[in-house]
Each structure stands twice: as C-alpha cells, then as structure tokens.
Design a protein that fits this description.
Structural class: alpha+beta
Radius of gyration: 36 Å
Strand content: 25-35%
Shape: globular
Largest sheet: 11 strands, mixed
Distance between the termini: 123 Å
Number of helices: 5
Length: 350
C-alpha cells in the first residue's frame, strides 16, 4: 500500500504567506514614509470676484440703469408750443412727450422727465381737461400755471401732486426775461422733485426691447422716412428719419424744430395715436384717451400698424400689433402724437 504524503502543516502555510506579505507591507510602509516626509503643496490664492451691479430698466425710457439710481418721482409739465414759446427749455431731455390739440387749432405738450431732469423747464402753461387722463398713470408731480377751476379740480382729483404757478408760495416758479408773457413762466424742476422725494417712481408705461434692432417696428415694420401729422391748419408737425443721428428729427409747419441749445429735437420712438375729440367744454377740445383706437409705431426708420388701448384714467396706454401681441419700443425717448380723427390726418412716407 502506497503511503499518503503528509499534508503541509499550518505553520508552514503561514510562513509562506508571511514571506509574500512582508515585502508588500514594507513597500507600503515606504510609500507612507515618503508621503509624510514630502513638503506640503503650495496653495495659490483664488482671485476675488467683483460682484456685478444689479440693473433694471428706466421706467419711462427702457434703458438699463443701476438698481436704486432712479428711485425718484416723475415730473410732468404743461409746456407751451406757441411760436413765441419756442425754443422751449428742457424738451431735449424728456423721457416722454405727448402732443395734444388745444383751442384755436394749436397744440401743447405734456412733457415728462424722470431719468434726466434739467434744473429749469418751460414755458409752463395751464391745464386742460385731457391732462388728468395722460398724467394719472405716471403718479409723481404735475406742474402747470393754472387753468379753469373745473379743469384744475379734475387734475387735483387724481393721486398726482399738483404744483401750480398761480398758488406758488415756495418760489418754485418764476418769469424769465427772455420771453414775453404769457410764454415766460418756468419751473425749477430738480428743486420741485427734491421736495417730494417720498413719492414713488413711476410705473413702466410701455414694453421695451433689448435694442432698437429688436423693437417691434424694426422687426415687423415697413420703411418710413417721414411721418406727417396734421392736427389742424395751424399745426402740422413732422418727423424725418436720420440714419446718421439714429433718431427721428422733428419739424413744425415745415421748419426744423430746435431746442434751446440750437439742436433739432429728436426722438428714438414716434408713436401716433388717432383719437376722438370731445367738445363738451365748448371751445376747449378734450382728447378722448379712455378707450381704444388706431396707432402707428415708428422706430429706426420703420413703422408698424397697431392698436392703442387704455381701460381707465389711471391705466397706462397699451400698444398691440395686428396679431394682439404687445408692441416693444426701442430703448430711448418717445414722442406721442395725439392726432384727432376728424380734425387731423397722418401720412407715413417711405
């Protein structure tokens, strides 16, 4: 019988395993020793990030401004447009201007400043019955010389602060020598606003695109080189596109319309609203603004057809294209021509 070889003892197996394991342990120990003896890596300081200032839109102009930089109320003023009142003071720095029909076929302005306010504006004239509907959505302050008692009561019934030359005890209004009465009253605009710093800034009145190229008129409009608007036989303003100035340049009765510095008045956006006239107040026409009607929006040498809608006195005017989409103006200033349907006319020329 062949004898069976004896199995290796447990102690021999352990020795064999130990003989293999020892070099590994020694190798690992060496690695650890090398790591612990190495110099710590140098740390590079991270660059400090500068926080970008928070921005928002100027509510009446649509341009980008730092948050908190325009926390002031708007100032609307009734500005004279008689030939003896020209050139007016401060019109070139307005955010929005409304041109309205008044008695005798003449026009006056409701001029609005908030993002860029001059020290003086004028000549300031009296209030009219449509002005509360124009100014109420803005809040803030309105400056005017006076007016019929019933029209002043209409303006005072809004939430807007009324500053009136006829009742001025603070010296905010005065007459200048350069113009004849009644075209000589001006108001200290920045001082007036500073006295009402507690008032809220205006709500945004229109929608704006990021750039002129993205505006509704530029995207979907037709070329428009000239806008001819006729209020009456006495007043027919026009706007001509200037590519060099990237703006529409204003003329009145066929002559360039200049500011007090001798530069032609200009606007980024020209908005024409066709409006009814209410003759309830005798010879004083009242532009009907609570309602809706036809409109044209011009920006960057192009115009698009639209509808305007205003649901209440304190509601902003909404502008909608022919598909019901909200119109976006280009960032910049805006002139709004309130052209009567029956008494006036509008012509857009390529």
């Amino acid at each position: 019988m062949t004898p069976i070889p004896a199995a290796p003892t447990r102690s021999r197996l352990a020795v064999s395993v130990l003989a293999v394991a020892v070099p590994i342990v020694l190798l690992l120990s060496g690695c650890v020793a090398d790591k612990s003896s190495a110099a710590p890596p140098s740390s590079t300081p991270r660059p400090t990030r500068t926080a970008e200032p928070a921005v928002t839109l100027a509510p009446l102009r649509g341009t980008t401004v730092d948050v908190g930089s325009l926390d002031t109320p708007s100032l609307a003023a009734k500005i004279d447009n008689h030939s003896d009142a020209r050139p007016q003071i401060g019109l070139e720095r307005t955010d929005i201007v409304f041109e309205e029909l008044v008695e005798g076929g003449l026009t006056r302005y409701v001029a609005v400043w908030q993002s860029d306010v001059p020290d003086l504006v004028g000549p300031v004239r009296s209030i009219r019955p449509m002005d509360p509907d124009i100014i109420a959505p803005l809040g803030g302050i309105v400056a005017y010389s006076g007016g019929q008692e019933r029209f002043m009561e209409m303006m005072e019934s809004t939430a807007v602060v009324n500053a009136v030359f006829d009742y001025d005890e603070a010296g905010l209004f005065y007459r200048i020598e350069e113009k004849d009465s009644p075209h000589d009253v001006v108001v200290k605009a920045t001082e007036l606003i500073s006295q009402h710093a507690d008032l809220a800034p205006p709500r945004q009145q229109f929608e704006y695109s990021a750039s002129a190229a993205d505006s509704s008129a530029m995207v979907g409009g037709s070329p428009t080189g000239t806008i001819d608007a006729r209020f009456s036989d006495s007043r027919w303003p026009s706007w001509t596109w200037s590519a060099a100035d990237t703006a529409y340049l204003r003329a009145q009765e066929g002559e360039p319309d200049f500011d007090s510095a001798g530069n032609q008045l200009r606007s980024t956006n020209v908005v024409v609203l066709r409006v009814d006239i209410d003759w309830t107040y005798g010879e004083v026409p009242k532009t009907t603004l609570v309602g809706s009607g036809e409109a044209w929006i011009s920006t960057g040498g192009k115009s698009t057809h639209a509808t305007w809608v205003k649901g209440a006195q304190d509601a902003a005017i909404r502008l909608l294209d022919d598909n019901g989409v909200v119109i976006r103006l280009a960032p910049g200033n805006t002139w709004i021509e309130l052209v009567p349907i029956d008494e006036g006319s509008v012509e857009l020329l390529p």
